[in-house]
Write a structure and sequence with these properties.
about 110 residues, two-stranded antiparallel sheet, 6 strands, 1 helix, mainly beta, single chain, about 30% strand
């Protein structure tokens, strides 16, 4: 799959010239605990792939291309450091375990599973 992201601030301003890191991890289903004062977090899953880019003006940023290496649960983690030195992160679960596929098989294309 390909991740193309429009990065804006909380006041709806475009964010340009910022280092963005996108990582794909094997995931055990446990949501990472984020330190609310720094934004730092710790993941225990295996790092599968990394993608780094510098954000640009105009909305659409460079694409990160990922493919899941096998059936299972993964966590896509996108992060950047804001002007106040706070680590801003988004988490997106992707993929399913074999048991999840058996319980709820894909019957039509839904964009991301």
């Amino acid at each position: 799959f390909v991740l193309i992201q429009d990065i804006t601030s909380t006041v709806n301003q475009e964010v340009a010239g910022v280092d963005v890191k996108v990582d794909l991890y094997r995931w055990d289903g446990v949501i990472p605990d984020v330190d609310k004062t720094t934004g730092q977090f710790e993941l225990t899953g295996e790092l599968v792939k990394q993608c780094n880019f510098v954000s640009v003006n105009g909305g659409v940023n460079p694409a990160c291309t990922f493919s899941l290496p096998s059936i299972g649960s993964y966590l896509l983690v996108a992060s950047l450091v804001d002007p106040c030195n706070y680590n801003v992160t988004s988490f997106l679960p992707v993929g399913k375990t074999l048991e999840q596929w058996q319980q709820d098989p894909l019957r039509s294309w839904n964009g991301i599973s």
